[in-house]
Prior knowledge:
Blueprint: E1 5-9, H1 17-25, H2 28-33, E2 35-40, H3 42-56, E3 61-65, E4 77-82, H4 107-125, E5 131-134, H5 139-144, H6 152-159, E6 166-171, E7 174-178, H7 185-190, H8 194-210, E8 218-220, H9 236-250, H10 263-271, E9 277-280, H11 283-294, E10 295-298, E11 303-307, E12 310-314, E13 320-323, H12 340-358
Parallel strand pairs: 1-2, 1-5, 2-4, 3-4, 5-13, 7-9, 8-9
Antiparallel strand pairs: 6-7, 6-12, 10-11, 12-13
Helix pairs in contact: 1-3, 4-6, 8-9
Amino acid sequence: MRKPILGITMGDPFGNGPEITVKALADKTVYDRCRPLVIGDVAAMEYAAKAAKKVSGIDMKVRAVKAVGEAKYEYGVINVYDMGIVKASDIPGDPEDPKPFGLGATALGGEAAFQYVKKVIELAMNGEVDATITNALSKEAINMADHHYSGHTEIYADYTNTSKYTMMLAHEELRVVHVSTHVSLREACDRVKKDRVLDVIRIANEGCKAIGIKEPKIAVAGLNPHCGENGMFGREEIEEIQPAIDAAMAEGIIIPEKKPTPPDTVFSKALGGWYDIVVVMYHDQGHIPLKVKGFVYNKAEGHWDAVAGVNVTLGLPIIRASVDHGTGFGHAGDGHANELSLVNAMDYGIRMANAKAEK
Length: 359
């Protein structure tokens, strides 16, 4: 069976990414399905491996490589494409007595995280890795390092010269794509325009096909309460969203409702299997239902039982799937980070790489 090479960025070195990566790669079945290569710094990964062993009994070694061709994909050894940015002396604390780093956003962490992403994009564009998987970075930190982007999605778009793209969030069979993401709510409303909505419907359709859904069923959420009530609460549904739906259906795209679906019911219908994906109009309209479903907090025991979900950028010439959570600076370094979202992202990366190879 073909095993795709996954380029996995370490994320902010002072966040939860290194530890999550160690825990995700401690599952032997990962190596049965793919060839994982971490893009980051050996010093941070070695610290995380030692902390994971102390807290969880996970015994993983770390091996530095300077080229993809040097990697040997053997269970028990994590290959790290060593960028040499963060040194052991930069990492606070003792892995034999793991405690939160307490650093938060730093220029060094932002610079490192940005360079990992830039490198993995380069490797993918050159065909050296089959899919890219990203751990969390800090938007504040990368801007402190003078890289002025609002997140991974915009970095990928810039370095792949992509103008039409969107974010897809997925957890199990619930999937959403966004007309806008990292802008104010006021600006997000102004961005609900026919051409952009139509582009996102098309990207959603192709994105579903990329993961093996042959005839995707798409819902398009309204912007206003009750989809505007025929213009009483806003006219975006009439003037922008419905024309985009009509144009998409004329192209053969399947939109079962044939009109915008009220945002307060569309996700329940999606969970019920009515749709394969939901086109949402702004960031939180899509993020909130995904995280309500994927993030599960154990109140009695005071920890997260699950931090699940995947962030996939659609419309790019390369595959990118990511964790659907932040850097966890408040707890990073204590050995208790949850790896489930990274496992989910790797699964999506494998699925999409295999589907692409079969075309």
